[in-house]
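## retry 2 of 3
previous attempt timed out at serialization; input unchanged, resubmitting
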Amino acid sequence: MTEPSQPGSKKMPDFDKLDDRIIAEQRTSGPTLVIKTNLDPKDSTVDNPYYGDDKTTDIKEFRDFFEDD
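## retry succeeded, writing output
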C-alpha cells in the first residue's frame, strides 16, 4: 500500500489563507510556556514577547486576541 501524495482531509482550509488567528512570523529557538496571571499588565503590548511594534502589528487585532473583555 502506498502513501497518498496529499494526506489529510480535503475539508481542511489552506494554512496560508487562515485569517482568524495570529500566526507568529518569527520562531523561537525553543519551547515557550506563556501563562497569564493577575500580576500581568493590563496592556497586552507591554513586555509581550509576541508583540513587535505598532508599525508591523495590527494593535486592535493583537489586543482582541490577548485581552479579555
